[in-house]
Design a protein that fits this description.
Arc Repressor Mutant, subunit A; 3 domains; four-stranded antiparallel sheet; 18 helices; 4 strands
Length: 323
């Protein structure tokens, strides 16, 4: 987002004002920005660019399937677009969407709707546009076959930049509607996707299900898992998780020790479980997997994997396929 603003002439100091984020934190690959800080950054960008049209929409156009980790990979391996949408709804808490999302089928169109009513009012339009543009990108990326949006509906009046939105979507939106939604034909929704992988989608669904279940686990360890499998992610530091739990890092470490575990052990367990499942069930590159797991480079991931299983990731993959 800072780079996006910079491309429009806004310096980073303006973007970061009052967010608690500094340049050092932005350059730290082990850091992750929580939602509250992101919303303050959005406010700063909106104030700095009051006359710049379609800010949220233009930002959302830069998101893709890989942005969303295990949730995104589960969508990419689904059988059809309809299946991908159902998976997305089922595990929506694992995504970064701000809007409440829903699907519908009227016999002619299959659609994905977005409700921004739970978002602070002054940020609703920006984040609705970002989620909508992201959703359109995901639909197009999943199809890989020129699938087009057949209809778009928006609440409210047409914005001044309606022509830009029309060009970006590929169809003239209908304004003043009862919902915000993008639709494809029913036939397109049920057309097999080129990236479908039955074995991999089952593995990724299991991983998504496990993550949701772990969010409900009691005790402090369960709460920590909820944060590292949620918005903080596998790159979270003990300081970030402690702050999210309103305690000091020292108290967090002590209480986890009383439960027979540690912060490092919880992070390692989740990374190892995810690495084993993806290596066994997909052809994802090691570089991509390392980034997904929160490592700064592939070499760091490889060293960690050797420590876990006493073999390289490549050897683990070869042995699993051979067996």
């Amino acid at each position: 987002m800072v780079n996006f603003a910079a491309s429009l002439g806004v310096d980073s100091d303006t973007c970061l004002l009052g967010t608690g984020i500094n340049e050092t934190l932005l350059e730290d690959s082990d850091a992750l920005i929580p939602r509250e800080q992101e919303m303050r950054l959005i406010e700063n960008i909106m104030l700095a660019l009051p006359d710049e049209p379609a800010l949220g929409f233009r930002l959302g156009q830069q998101y893709n399937v890989a942005t969303f980790g295990i949730w995104g990979f589960a969508l990419r391996t689904s059988r059809t677009l309809r299946d991908a949408a159902e998976t997305a709804m089922r595990y929506l808490p694992l995504s970064t969407a701000y809007c409440r999302m829903f699907t519908f089928d009227d016999g002619q169109y299959f659609g994905i709707g977005m409700d921004p009513s739970d978002i602070p009012r002054h940020l609703q339009q920006f984040l609705l546009e970002r989620d909508l543009a992201t959703g359109i990108n995901l639909v197009r990326e999943l199809s890989l076959a020129g699938l087009t949006i057949a209809r778009a509906e928006f609440q409210g009046d047409p914005p001044a930049y309606a022509d830009f939105v029309k060009t970006a979507i590929g169809v003239a939106p209908h304004y003043g509607q009862s919902r915000n939604a993008t639709m494809v034909s029913v036939e397109s929704a049920d057309k097999p996707l080129p990236t479908f992988n039955g074995n991999l989608v089952r593995m990724l669904e299991d991983q998504c299900r496990t993550q949701l279940q772990q969010r409900q686990v009691g005790g402090l360890a369960g709460q920590v898992r909820q944060h590292i499998l949620g918005r903080l992610g596998l790159i979270a530091t003990v300081e970030e998780v402690a702050s999210a739990l309103a305690m000091s890092p020292r108290s967090l470490r002590r209480k986890l020790e009383q439960e027979g575990t540690s912060f490092r052990q919880l992070i390692e367990e989740e990374r190892r479980q995810t690495a084993e499942q993806i290596l066994a069930g997909s052809d994802m590159t090691l570089d991509e997997l390392a980034i997904h797991l929160g490592y700064t480079d592939t070499a760091s991931f490889t060293r960690a994997f050797r420590r876990w299983l006493h073999m390289s990731p490549g050897e683990y993959r070869r042995r699993h396929k051979a067996s």
